[in-house]
Amino acid sequence: MDIHEVVRLLRDGASDREITSLVGLNRRTVARYRRWATEEALLGGPLPDVGELEARLQATLPVMLPPQQTSTVAAYRDEIVALRQQSRALETLYQQEMGKVHARTYSQRLRDIGLRGVWFAILEGVTIASGRTRQEVEQAVQRIVPQNKLPFVYTFEVKEPAKRRGTK
Q1: Fewer CB within 10 Å: C terminus or N terminus of the chain?
Q2: CA nearest neighbour of 13 among 48, 40, 49, 37
């Protein structure tokens, strides 16, 4: 990315949309650079050279990291681990519920790439088998999963998204 070109276009009066199409940046990024250039008084007077602009950018514009997904159960990790160790039934329940969580995420991603009507099995957050029928997946699971882990396997079908009320 050439900050010199962005600042030059800003000085020439180009809109954020025009700059986006010319340099290939997101409009929010261009708007952020516009605010930065205004705060740094770069829209008037002599235009600093590329090296100076890059240095000022690094020194004065904080890096924006993408938002991170945070687990809603992370705060309860120790308690969950202790409960899982106390009882096989609780461990099974935990693994099945986590399987549902993973299945929702995977199903959406798989639908996004055009897959529907296929079956998958998840064990501890990892996809371990897939097939065209539930029976095909369950047979694969029986062949590859240790007996003590079988209750933890969650099997699901990637279906069409449910229609919401009021939609056509």
Answers
A1: C
A2: 37
Strands 126-131 and 154-158: unpaired
Say what the pTM is.
0.49
Structure-token match 């539930």, residue found: 134
CA angle 160, 166, 168 (to 5 degrees): 55
Instruction: Return all residues near 75 (Cβ < 8 A) that are at least 6 apart.
Output: none
Sequence ranges of the domains in the chain? 3-60, 84-158
Report d(CA 100, CA 38) in Å as an integer: 49
Other CB atoms within 10 Å distance of the CB of residue 129: 21
The pLDDT value recorded for residue 150 is 93
Residues of the chain scoring pLDDT < 70: 1, 65-70, 162-168
Residue 164's contacts (CB-CB under 8 Å, 6 or more residues apart) are none
- Radius of gyration from C-alpha coordinates of the chain: 26
What 8-state DSSP symbol labels residue 138? Answer: H
Give yes or no for a contact between 42 and 7, defined as CB atoms under 8 angstroms apart.
yes
